[in-house]
Amino acid sequence: MSQARTMDGKVVIVTGAGGGVGKAIALLAAAEGAKVVVNDLGVSLNGEKQALSPAEQVVQAIQTAGGQAIANADSVADWDSAQRMVEQAVDTFGRIDAVVNSAGILRDAIFHKLEPADFESVIRVHLFGAYNTSRAAASHFRAQGGGALVHMTSTSGLIGGLGQANYAAAKMGIVGLSRSISMDMARFGVRSNCIAPHAFSRMIESVPGLSPEEQERYLEKRRQTTRPEQIAPLAVLLCSDQAKDVSGQIFGARGNEVYLYNQPRPIRTLQRGEGWTPSTLAEQMIPAWRTSFTPAERTKDVFGWEAI
């Protein structure tokens, strides 16, 4: 007798699933038995419309492999579109069991050159997008007594990076959103977790800072050691019943590594019976805590070892 697959009987929406991490998750979820709504707006990272439909291509790949999937081209940044996406899943497959929020864009700029439109557009796709799709699914999850949300955060927010204040702000907002959902919806059996992925994708490829030759060498190495397919197992697990007791967490996946992030908690305290003034804080707090301050590190400083 063949072993039951991880996602048999489940219906999953994967946003931004026309390529990269989202595509890999959609393909694996389908291979594990899920019926998948493959959402992709069909645009480039800067928001330009593409002639072909990446979502339709992923659907065809799933169907060719014997799975079930439908394409969806709604925008996660729009409330009504997110509602239609979930309605399409329920109308087509009868239910909705999980949403993976993978859709994203980049509008990188050093902060003093970051335009309001580019800040807002990134926030709307990533943070509003995660809210819109999660909220659209929440009523169904509550009614059926369960569901799973998986959100893509980023080391750009968790650790730090250059030229991505809009992206980092959105990704840290997603962490807070996920944590709150995990608490608010726990009574209904709903789980919410984050993944900070390291994977070669259109987003990684678009990050500037190296000469063309250096960038090609760097990207070729990343293509081999940090692939979207290495992120997918963790995301699919978190959508499945095998992770029914896991919620409110931040995971990472990098090459063949998976890891768990800590979350902000107080690490040092000082108390002064008569209270504080700016001067006494400067005299006592700063010297006492200086060695505990988080340094201005970037992702590459924290992950000093090679992915394998």
Automatic annotation (TrEMBL):
Any Pfam family the entry gives = adh_short
Occurrences of domain Ketoreductase (ranges):
10-206
Q: What SMART domains does the record tag this protein with?
A: PKS_KR
Taxonomy, superkingdom: Bacteria
Q: Which family does it belong to?
A: Belongs to the short-chain dehydrogenases/reductases (SDR) family.
Could you tell me what this protein is called?
A: SDR family oxidoreductase
